[in-house]
Protein backbone atom coordinates (compact mmCIF):
# COMPACT_ATOMS: atom_id res chain seq x y z
CA UNK A 1 0.00 0.00 0.00
CA UNK A 2 1.46 3.35 -1.09
CA UNK A 3 -1.30 5.81 -0.18
CA UNK A 4 -4.62 5.87 1.67
CA UNK A 5 -7.57 7.64 0.06
CA UNK A 6 -10.04 9.20 2.49
CA UNK A 7 -13.34 10.95 1.94
CA UNK A 8 -13.29 14.26 3.78
CA UNK A 9 -16.86 15.32 3.05
CA UNK A 10 -19.30 16.68 2.81
CA UNK A 11 -21.22 14.15 4.83
CA UNK A 12 -22.35 13.30 8.32
CA UNK A 13 -20.32 14.78 11.15
CA UNK A 14 -19.74 11.41 12.84
CA UNK A 15 -19.01 9.59 9.59
CA UNK A 16 -16.39 12.13 8.58
CA UNK A 17 -14.71 12.07 12.00
CA UNK A 18 -14.52 8.27 11.95
CA UNK A 19 -13.21 8.11 8.37
CA UNK A 20 -10.50 10.70 9.01
CA UNK A 21 -9.51 9.11 12.33
CA UNK A 22 -9.19 5.62 10.85
CA UNK A 23 -7.25 6.91 7.83
CA UNK A 24 -4.91 8.90 10.08
CA UNK A 25 -4.28 5.88 12.32
CA UNK A 26 -3.45 3.66 9.37
CA UNK A 27 -1.26 6.31 7.76
CA UNK A 28 0.69 6.95 10.96
CA UNK A 29 1.20 3.24 11.61
CA UNK A 30 2.37 2.53 8.05
CA UNK A 31 4.13 5.88 7.57
CA UNK A 32 2.35 6.52 4.27
CA UNK A 33 0.59 9.63 2.88
CA UNK A 34 -3.13 10.29 2.65
CA UNK A 35 -5.12 11.44 -0.36
CA UNK A 36 -8.27 13.42 0.52
CA UNK A 37 -11.27 13.45 -1.80
CA UNK A 38 -14.63 15.21 -2.02
CA UNK A 39 -17.56 12.80 -1.67
CA UNK A 40 -19.63 14.75 -4.22
CA UNK A 41 -16.88 14.48 -6.85
CA UNK A 42 -16.32 10.80 -6.06
CA UNK A 43 -20.03 10.20 -6.66
CA UNK A 44 -19.84 11.99 -10.01
CA UNK A 45 -16.76 10.02 -11.06
CA UNK A 46 -18.53 6.75 -10.25
CA UNK A 47 -21.59 7.82 -12.30
CA UNK A 48 -19.40 8.77 -15.27
CA UNK A 49 -17.46 5.48 -15.06
CA UNK A 50 -20.77 3.58 -15.11
CA UNK A 51 -21.96 5.61 -18.15
CA UNK A 52 -24.91 6.97 -16.17
CA UNK A 53 -24.49 10.62 -17.21
CA UNK A 54 -23.75 12.34 -20.53
CA UNK A 55 -20.12 12.55 -21.64
CA UNK A 56 -19.91 16.29 -21.01
CA UNK A 57 -21.88 19.11 -19.48
CA UNK A 58 -22.94 20.42 -16.10
CA UNK A 59 -23.89 17.96 -13.41
CA UNK A 60 -25.28 18.60 -9.95
CA UNK A 61 -24.05 16.03 -7.43
CA UNK A 62 -26.32 15.75 -4.36
CA UNK A 63 -26.39 13.98 -1.01
CA UNK A 64 -29.36 13.95 1.36
CA UNK A 65 -28.14 15.59 4.58
CA UNK A 66 -30.99 13.88 6.53
CA UNK A 67 -32.20 17.20 7.97
CA UNK A 68 -34.54 18.33 5.19
CA UNK A 69 -31.55 19.79 3.35
CA UNK A 70 -29.00 18.51 0.87
CA UNK A 71 -25.30 18.77 0.25
CA UNK A 72 -24.70 19.80 -3.35
CA UNK A 73 -22.01 20.89 -5.78
CA UNK A 74 -22.09 21.72 -9.47
CA UNK A 75 -19.42 20.30 -11.79
CA UNK A 76 -18.62 21.07 -15.38
CA UNK A 77 -16.87 18.29 -17.23
CA UNK A 78 -15.81 16.97 -20.58
CA UNK A 79 -13.34 14.34 -21.74
CA UNK A 80 -12.88 13.05 -18.15
CA UNK A 81 -11.84 16.50 -16.89
CA UNK A 82 -13.89 17.80 -13.96
CA UNK A 83 -14.08 21.39 -12.81
CA UNK A 84 -16.05 22.25 -9.68
CA UNK A 85 -18.22 25.31 -10.17
CA UNK A 86 -17.86 26.38 -6.54
CA UNK A 87 -17.42 24.82 -3.12
CA UNK A 88 -19.73 22.16 -1.65
CA UNK A 89 -22.91 23.68 -0.25
CA UNK A 90 -25.62 22.76 2.24
CA UNK A 91 -29.09 24.21 1.80
CA UNK A 92 -32.77 23.59 1.38
CA UNK A 93 -33.75 22.52 -2.12
CA UNK A 94 -35.21 25.90 -3.05
CA UNK A 95 -31.86 27.58 -2.34
CA UNK A 96 -29.90 25.45 -4.84
CA UNK A 97 -28.64 27.67 -7.64
CA UNK A 98 -29.03 26.37 -11.18
CA UNK A 99 -26.64 27.50 -13.93
CA UNK A 100 -27.81 27.73 -17.51
CA UNK A 101 -28.17 24.41 -19.30
CA UNK A 102 -27.86 21.80 -16.54
CA UNK A 103 -27.15 18.38 -18.02
CA UNK A 104 -27.92 15.95 -15.19
CA UNK A 105 -28.51 15.64 -11.47
CA UNK A 106 -27.17 12.71 -9.48
CA UNK A 107 -27.28 11.36 -5.95
CA UNK A 108 -29.64 10.48 -3.16
CA UNK A 109 -30.62 14.12 -2.58
CA UNK A 110 -32.67 14.23 -5.77
CA UNK A 111 -35.99 13.59 -4.03
CA UNK A 112 -35.57 16.86 -2.12
CA UNK A 113 -35.43 18.76 -5.42
CA UNK A 114 -38.88 17.62 -6.56
CA UNK A 115 -40.33 20.90 -5.26
CA UNK A 116 -38.51 22.91 -7.92
CA UNK A 117 -40.34 24.04 -11.04
CA UNK A 118 -38.89 22.59 -14.24
CA UNK A 119 -36.80 20.06 -12.37
CA UNK A 120 -38.47 17.08 -14.05
CA UNK A 121 -36.96 18.12 -17.41
CA UNK A 122 -33.39 17.46 -16.19
CA UNK A 123 -32.05 13.87 -16.47
CA UNK A 124 -31.75 12.25 -13.03
CA UNK A 125 -29.50 9.47 -11.74
CA UNK A 126 -30.61 8.58 -8.25
CA UNK A 127 -29.74 6.42 -5.32
CA UNK A 128 -30.72 3.14 -6.98
CA UNK A 129 -28.33 3.63 -9.89
CA UNK A 130 -25.50 4.87 -7.63
CA UNK A 131 -25.75 2.09 -5.06
CA UNK A 132 -22.10 1.12 -5.52
CA UNK A 133 -19.39 3.13 -3.81
CA UNK A 134 -16.79 4.94 -5.91
CA UNK A 135 -13.77 2.76 -6.64
CA UNK A 136 -10.16 3.78 -6.02
CA UNK A 137 -9.51 3.83 -9.77
CA UNK A 138 -12.15 6.56 -10.16
CA UNK A 139 -10.51 8.66 -7.46
CA UNK A 140 -7.03 8.17 -8.91
CA UNK A 141 -8.14 10.13 -11.99
CA UNK A 142 -8.93 13.19 -9.89
CA UNK A 143 -6.61 16.21 -9.80
CA UNK A 144 -6.73 15.73 -6.03
CA UNK A 145 -5.00 12.36 -6.53
CA UNK A 146 -1.67 14.13 -6.90
CA UNK A 147 -2.22 15.96 -3.61
CA UNK A 148 -1.10 13.91 -0.65
CA UNK A 149 -1.00 14.91 2.98
CA UNK A 150 0.73 13.75 6.11
CA UNK A 151 -1.59 12.09 8.61
CA UNK A 152 -1.64 15.09 10.94
CA UNK A 153 -2.70 17.44 8.14
CA UNK A 154 -5.85 15.56 7.10
CA UNK A 155 -9.04 17.38 8.14
CA UNK A 156 -12.74 16.73 7.47
CA UNK A 157 -14.58 19.25 5.29
CA UNK A 158 -17.57 20.36 7.32
CA UNK A 159 -20.02 22.16 5.08
CA UNK A 160 -22.45 22.57 7.96
CA UNK A 161 -20.16 24.22 10.47
CA UNK A 162 -22.87 25.12 12.97
CA UNK A 163 -23.19 21.48 14.11
CA UNK A 164 -20.69 19.63 16.25
CA UNK A 165 -18.82 19.88 19.48
CA UNK A 166 -17.67 23.24 20.71
CA UNK A 167 -14.41 23.91 22.49
CA UNK A 168 -14.76 24.57 26.22
CA UNK A 169 -14.02 28.26 25.65
CA UNK A 170 -16.95 28.43 23.20
CA UNK A 171 -19.48 26.62 25.44
CA UNK A 172 -20.06 29.40 27.94
CA UNK A 173 -20.59 29.15 31.66
CA UNK A 174 -21.84 25.93 33.34
CA UNK A 175 -23.33 27.61 36.41
TrEMBL record:
Domain Gcp-like: start-end pairs: 1-82
Keywords assigned: Hydrolase, Protease
InterPro entries xref list: ATPase_NBD, Gcp-like_dom, T6A_TsaB
Lineage of producing organism: Bacteria, Pseudomonadati, Pseudomonadota, Gammaproteobacteria, Cellvibrionales
Pfam families: TsaD
Similarity comment text for this entry: Belongs to the KAE1 / TsaD family. TsaB subfamily.
Name of protein: tRNA threonylcarbamoyladenosine biosynthesis protein TsaB
GO biological process: proteolysis; tRNA threonylcarbamoyladenosine modification
Listed GO MF terms: peptidase activity
Gene3D superfamilies: 3.30.420.40
Amino acid sequence: MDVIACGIGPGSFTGLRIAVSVAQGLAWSREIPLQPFCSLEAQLRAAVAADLVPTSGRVLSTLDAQIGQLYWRWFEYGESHFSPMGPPQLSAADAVSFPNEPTAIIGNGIHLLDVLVGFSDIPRVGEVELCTAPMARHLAQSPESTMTLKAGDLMPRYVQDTVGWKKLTEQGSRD
